[in-house]
Amino acid sequence: MNNINNEIAKLLPQYFEGCLNEIQTKKIESWLAESSVNREIADNIADIYRKSDTLFAMNNVDTNSAFKIVNSKIIHSRMRTILIKIERVAAVLFIPLLFLTILQFYNSLHKKPVSMMALATSSGMTASVILPDGTAVKLNSDSKLTYPSVFTGDIREISLQGEAFFNVTKDVNHPFIVRTPQKASIKVFGTHFNVEAYPEDDIATTTLEEGSIAMLYRNRDNLSRERFIEPGEAIVYSRKYKNTQINKVDVDVATSWKDGRLIFRNTPAKEVLRSLSKRFGVDFVVCNKEVYSNSFTGTLERQRLDKILKYMTITSGMHFKYLPNNDINKLKQIIEVN
Predict the structure, then answer these.
(1) Surface-to-core class of residue 246, CB atoms within 10 Å of its CB (0-12 exposed, 13-18 middle, 19+ buried)
(2) How far apart are CA 139 and CA 160, in angstroms?
(3) What is the pLDDT of residues 40-83, one digit of tens each?
(4) Extents of the domains making up the chain
(5) Would you give the end-to-end CA distance of the chain in angstroms?
(6) What is the pTM of this model?
């Protein structure tokens, strides 16, 4: 409830009695003119107020009669007068509270329904979005983000399939929850972090750049667990084994994709190929597993894929061969690795 509504609630009883000054009266009349809902609320409150006045008047009549009939019971009469005044004050105090309750009810009736929104990226593409709470999200290739048009309730909950980098608006009273296909969730209040959770993968990996986050999951005994990590760490949840592992990581390497770069620092070939696959929308088919023994260092920004593969061939002896794609349902280029 905002401040003007609280002020209106306090002024209405005095408005019904005609005790407001000119400025206060204009404020009430302006509020009444805003909408038919406001006028209807005021009419209902006025009706209640009139009835409380009637009850008060009846009590006064009874009290006066009591004074005439039982003059000797002065103490009792005075006590009754005090009780009536307390009743009157209670009625006046009750009206603003009732007003606020009714207003909340009317607001709930006129709230716009919450709809679900979705942002998806195709192979080799990225996208950005600002969520209703101001949280900034960068979505990587082949990913999908689902979120409500308005956050309501005690938590801010979204779902991710794929990879995204989050800059979450801080709100200690409303945790930000990221649901993943692996049935693990990430809980934060305001921080920068990366989540990689593609539906086809067994694992969900969260890398923390700044702040504090926790991984929520159920272990093999189906017991709820909450595990925190610190900046510079990544937590990996396994859907198969229902456990987590925390590793020290190079955050720049893990999150460089969001800035349109790929940074490798003695990075294993398997991770390099995975990053290139997402960046250029291709599928690598590794025929010789020995290529995974290689590692690479360098920063890629605007280099073409063929130039990158040529460099990898020179430095590691790996060989790449473009294969024809006969599956019309798959638009990705297939590259064989030996």
Answers:
(1) middle
(2) 9
(3) 777 777 666 655 554 444 444 444 444 344 444 444 555 555 55
(4) 3-109, 116-253, 261-337
(5) 65
(6) 0.68
